[in-house]
Design brief:
The structure holds two protein chains of two kinds. Chain A is an alpha+beta fold. Chain A contains four helices and three strands. In chain A, strands 1-3-2 form a three-stranded antiparallel sheet. Chain A is globular. Classes of the chains: A alpha+beta, B mainly alpha. Chain A: This is Transcriptional regulator, PadR family.
Chain lengths: 112, 451
């Protein structure tokens, strides 16, 4: 299923923060992980993800560090900060209210 | 590197104004492309095909570059710059008004000329500091700190003394070496804080030892006001570092013992001065009751009190002038330097005085907010130390002018006519703006980037 682009963009920040709240990750890993978790429904475009990651970093929501990990390839890992956790909580709440209201307006349909 | 990849990275880079971040951005994107390529090769593609598909998967490079540029373009804090300009202007107007007043006994031409020269030099130094990459200094912190201690020690012993205070003369400029030492202490101490404060007790003792030594060099110089400024800055910096999340150890115990020993040190110093009695002791206490000794130690406090108590909301105070030996003159000596605030209030009225205080307060607030956005730790310490010293200086000067603190020689940053002090303050603000400009520098924890 293809999801409407605008709907996706607004929630990308939340999805990125949510992924990072389970542990530090690098960009490629985040794309793969999101695909896996959403059964390929969500494809996080690289071109969307990196600008968001960098602006989250500049706002202090995430921190970055370079690490070589097990392979010899250098990777930039992202780590969620306390400030980021707080933003995630807010975004989740917003999302809950939004989706609940949409469901209600749509006549109590449940897509789950 | 494969030409598809380099082509992609070049297109991204072209969109990014701030070239210092290019290395790390290219490295990150390149590593992503390689991971994608590996995946496609595993799926059975040829290497060339895999790379092409990976690059395509990354998206539109021009679009990515533009978006990244929004985050990484150098940021200039225009609000701080305009407030700074306002302060320099207020200082200029006050100086012009003082020097053009016959009663100041100052030479207008000469003061205007040196105001313009120092403003010009100050702007130049500020701009140079703004563009200078401050991160290059961090590794020399200990060296700079020790050289500064040595410089003060030697200058104290060897330079010409004016009223007991050593002065250095180079060309037509003469200056107090303490003014030059202060920024170097601040810059290098920020590096030492970053290096030693998060660590163990031994490192903590090292940094406290060096800090005390630095404060002592200023006390013996003697420059009580600068010693106070510096220790205030040091304490604030150490507190910020101890409260930071990188700190391991018992925060409460460390801070209590530091604050405890500082308080003890100040008390001992005060006891020593008061115990000696004499002029110094009298000057220190006289502000509590300015009328107690109007012709002796409390002379300045008495005049300040007279001037300000008769200041109007708008316009000149009646007590601005004083006739001494038949000559009508502005009541306070040195009115264009340390007491410029008292002059502004009594010559232009309280409203203009309040506007001045508001401009300074706004500058402090904007500077403080700017420090909170800095991600690079050394830069953050550097900026915090500068904001602290600026704030303490302004606070000390205003309190002294309105008679709520002893006369200790704090000047009002950017407003007092201060020659070399002005240039030093401009340099510090330049560093602060430069730190803000590079606030999003990525912290490379492991390895070096090979670009």
């Amino acid at each position: 299923m293809k999801i409407d682009k605008d709907l996706m963009k607004g929630s990308t920040t939340m999805l990125i923060l949510n992924l990072l709240s389970n542990g530090d990750m690098y960009g490629y890993q985040m794309v793969k992980e999101l695909e896996k978790r959403s059964d390929n429904t969500f494809t996080l475009k690289e071109g969307t993800m990196y600008p968001i990651l960098h602006s989250l970093e500049s706002e202090g929501m995430v921190e970055a560090y370079w690490d070589e990990g097990a392979s010899s390839r250098k990777r930039k890992y992202y780590h969620i900060t306390g400030k980021g956790e707080k933003l995630l909580k807010e975004k989740k709440k917003e999302w809950e209210i939004y989706s609940k209201t949409v469901n209600k307006v749509m006549g109590g349909m449940c897509f789950e | 590197m494969n030409k598809h990849i380099s082509n992609f990275l070049n297109k991204v880079s072209e969109q990014i104004q701030y070239k210092s971040v290019l290395g790390s951005i290219s490295e990150e994107l390149k590593s992503h492309i390689y991971e994608l390529t590996d995946g496609y090769i595993e799926d059975g593609m040829s290497e060339d095909e895999a790379i092409q598909k990976a690059v395509k998967q990354m998206g539109n490079p021009v679009h990515i570059g533009k978006e990244l540029n929004k985050t990484h373009r150098p940021k200039t804090e225009w609000s701080i710059i305009s407030l700074l300009g306002a302060m320099v202007l207020i200082g200029g107007i006050a100086l012009f008004s003082i020097a053009s007043d016959q009663a100041s006994l100052l030479n207008l031409d000469q003061f205007l000329k040196s105001y313009l020269i120092y403003t010009f030099i100050g702007i130049g130094v500020c701009t140079a500091c703004y563009f200078f990459d401050y991160t290059k200094l961090e590794k020399y912190s200990l060296f700079i700190f020790i050289v500064t201690i040595a410089f003060l020690f030697i200058s104290q012993k060897s330079s010409a003394h004016v009223y007991g205070v050593p002065y250095i003369r180079i060309g037509g400029f003469s200056f107090n070496p303490v003014s030059i030492a202060l920024p170097f202490y601040l810059i290098s101490f920020s590096g030492l804080t970053n290096k030693w404060v998060p660590g163990n007790i031994m490192d903590m003792l090292k940094i406290l030892g060096l800090a005390s030594l630095a404060v002592l060099t200023l006390l013996f110089h003697p420059s009580f006001s600068n010693a106070m400024l510096l220790s205030g800055g040091f304490i604030i910096l150490i507190t910020i570092a101890v409260m930071g999340k990188g700190f391991v150890g018992n925060r409460k115990r460390i801070l209590t013992s530091i604050y405890g020993s500082v308080t003890l040190g100040i008390l001992l110093l005060l006891l020593h001065i008061l115990g000696q009695g004499g002029y110094k002791a009298a000057r220190l206490l006289v502000f509590l009751n300015p009328n107690s000794d109007p012709s002796g130690a409390g002379y300045i406090n008495f005049l300040l009190n007279e001037m300000l108590s008769s200041a109007k909301l708008f316009g000149k105070s009646d007590n601005l002038y004083l006739t001494i030996e038949g000559v009508n003159r502005i009541a306070l000596p040195e009115i264009n330097t340390d007491f410029v605030f008292a002059y502004i209030v009594s010559a232009f009225g309280w409203i203009i005085g309040m506007v001045t205080i508001m401009v300074i307060t706004l500058a402090v607030v904007r500077m403080f907010l700017a420090t909170r956005k800095i991600n690079h730790l050394y830069g953050k310490y550097l900026a915090c130390s500068i904001v602290s010293v600026f704030t303490l200086q302004a606070l000390g000067n205003i309190l002294m002018n309105i008679g709520m603190a002893p006369i200790l020689g704090f000047s009002l940053p950017f407003i007092s006519y201060g020659g070399i002090n002005f240039v030093v303050n401009m340099a510090l603000i330049g560093v602060l703006l430069g730190v803000y400009r590079r606030k999003d520098l990525v912290i490379v924890k492991q390895g070096q980037l090979n670009t």
